């Protein structure tokens, strides 16, 4: 059995490299819209059985959607994002959390924070890959199984971003990858 990790994904893998290259061509708004929608679709459902965290993550996604539609400013959104991070930290610190739920909560919180930090549009996927791998395979598989499932999740995310990317985006984000 492999030790469970907070994040999964090969930073040198083809999907990760392609995601990073594509992220560099997109605006903060495009990345935030995609990250929040992807997290809502893929990772938020993994939290349905966590009554102490699901409502907060749902509110956070909703707040980001409000920000993207102009109903809320970034200044108003920042406390919501901080609250989501705090709830995830409390979950991690307060008990022995379910690894799937904890990774999914980290993924949703981090995806929503792409509104503030564009590199989170990639980082959330590493938490999400862990959530999906542990959810699919259980918690006692070999590392190779988790790595394969993580690569599949990153490929799925790449296809999703390719489906919504804006060609010749006029204001792409400026990113320095520290990985």
Automatic annotation (TrEMBL):
Residues 22-152 form the Imm-5-like domain. It holds the Pfam family Imm5_like. This is Imm-5-like domain-containing protein.
